[in-house]
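Notes, Module 5: Reading structure tokens.

Key idea: the token line is not a picture. It is a compressed description, and you learn to read it the same way you learned to read a sequence, by spotting repeated patterns. We will look at two proteins. The first is printed below with its tokens.
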Amino acid sequence: MVLETEILIGMEALSVHTFPPMDVDARISKEWRRRMLFMLFMISGIGAWFLYDGYVVWPTEGARYVEFAEIRDGLLESGKANDEESPEIQLAWERHAQELGYKRDIPKERTDSSIREQRVIGWGMIAGATAFALWIAWNHKLRVRAEGDVVIGTSGQRVELDSIIAIDRKKWEKKGIAYAIYEADGKERRLCLDDHKFAGCEAIILEAERRIEARQEA
């Protein structure tokens, strides 16, 4: 009886020494934030490009095309040009463009429907960028914590470190993601520990692995 008590006391002391209470607050990493902001910039830029085309470039080019069509049709009807590829049409347009300060290139036809489509796509991209920005802001409120012997996930689930029976690192090398497999209510569950997104999760993973190894050795 005395021997058992001494062993228990010794194990308890060893446990306290080996596994001190944790204090980890893993928040959004700078790398994840930079990547998301880059994607936000890309989506916003593409949307702005479509809107600029839809409200500025294409309507202006459409107006120039109307002028070009008048010159072309006039030359074709008068017989001064044989077809639309005739150099006479090109030369006539270049003279007209030079007089009005236009580009020398022959403008493309921009219909109302095509201009409207550019605007719809642009506003759709801007709406998507706005939703994406709100999603990024919402993610900045999330975090993974380890307080004492308890890990608290992003959705508030509480997992005892000693209830973790395995760490799944299949996605660790490529994505920096590991899953803590633990037991709760007689079932195996998984807690995502994403160190790429939440800087500091690796400390929780290493601590869980140390405890698993210590239990296996015992």
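Here is the second protein, with the sequence above and the tokens below, as before.
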Amino acid sequence: MLIPGPGRAGKHGGMASEHVREVPLRRHVFDTDRSFSDVLDGIYGGISRPDIQSLFREIEASTSYDQLSSLVEQAQGSAGLMVFLRLDLDSALALDPQAPDWHGRHLVRLIAGNPVTMGQMTRHVADAGSYAPVTLLIEEKPDGGTRVSYDSVASALAPYDDSAASKVAERLDTEVLTLLRGVT
């Protein structure tokens, strides 16, 4: 549902508009007794970790879609993804005096994606670029187990009512969820 926002004068004097779209998400949460390092290693077993800067330079130098697709296919892991960025969120928490239970625990956000998959969604719904790449949040629980969270891309794209983008998003979700079910 789009909710109109207030109109305002744009940079060049024209009227700009603002809309708010409600985007409900389905978050998949996996709790396991497996150790944080075992779960993270398992995730890395399905999501590749290429030299992303080098790969992006090669992709930018591509002269055809076939060449770009080939580079991505060679770089992706078995779940069809590669890690773009790893954020160790626990670093700040370990120093936070109001979060004493975080000392020694891990909280990692992996931002992973596939430029071809992103393109297959955004060619139909440009806003799909807000949901790709995806985020995996891996938390070491106080009891020593691990929790992994993943927000379904198909649920994020549902309000756009585009069957082609949704089909790609469902395939992406299936690949990611299959990996997470296997490692947890």
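Summary for the second protein:
- Strands lie at 2-4, 8-9, 15-16, 19-21, 27-32, 47-48, 81-88, 107-113, 134-140, 146-151.
- The chain has a mean pLDDT of 90.
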